[in-house]
Every structure is written in structure tokens, then in C-alpha cells.
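Objective 1b of the project was to move from sequence-level analysis to a structural picture of ligand recognition. The entry below was assembled by the postdoctoral researcher (A.K.) and checked by the PI before modelling. It contains the amino acid sequence of the target and the SMILES of the bound compound, zinc ion.
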Amino acid sequence: MFFVLLFLRSGQLQKGADQQNKPIQLQVFLHYFLHLVFPFFIAFLFFRKEWKKVYLILLATMLVDADHLLATPVFQANRCSLGFHYLHTVYAIAVYFVLLFLPKPFNIIGIGLLLHMLADLIDCMFMFNHCKVCLANAPAIEVLKAIANFFSPHLSL
Ligand SMILES: [Zn+2]
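Corresponding predicted holo structure:
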């Protein structure tokens, strides 16, 4: 929720402060925060006794981006990963939810993967906010629109 509020706030920033690139900075900050810092808090707060191991597992779930290597081209600006890459589809995400209910370390892997999807979703929302046309053919476009409409219906996307 906190991140969604930040996202909405970034939208307001973008209207008034495009030259200063503030939304981009915020996007980069949020991305690394979710990838590196947030897992630390999860590990430390909820798995205090073995936080180092848990933190490493959470970091290791970044390997899910290996599915990008199967895409052509491997890198493309303004491409939303969600729904596009094999391990970023709704089916994959459903499996990650199931992992939450399995014993360690699978539940921790599930937490890491879902967190990763959240980080990617926030990235996609930033892109969508920045350039709606860029994502016109993105598989995740309907989800992005629904989220954007939910939080700011007045935008009428
Ligand atoms: Zn990803």
C-alpha cells in the first residue's frame, strides 16, 4: 500500500517536475529498495534467527529474471515484464502464491518471487504513467489500466 501511495505521488510529481527527472529517480529508488532493502526487513523482522539465510534466498529469487534471456530481443526499453516473460505470467504468479503455503524454504522463495513481481508491477506502472502508448500492446495492459483506474478514476484511461 505504501508503495502504491508513493506511485500515485510520483504521478503528481511527474506533472510538475518533468525536467528534474524526479519520477525516474523515484522509480530507480523504489526498484532497488524493493529488490535489496525490503527483503532485508522481511528477513530481519520475520526470520530473525536465520535472517542471513533468508535474505540470501530472497535475493536469489531475482534469478527469475533469467526468463528474459528467452525473449527476443533480450532487452527492450519500455517493455513490461509482467505477462510477457514465462516466469512473469499469471500462471507463474499463481504458483508463487501456492509456494507461500509450503514449508521452508519454498515459502521464502514464494515471498521473494511475489515481491519481485510487485517490484516489476511498480516499474510497469511508472512506464505506463510515463508513456501509455509504449505499453499499448503489453499483455499486462488491462491489469495496469485497472490498477490505475482503481487508484485515480479521474484520469479516465
Ligand atoms: Zn522481473
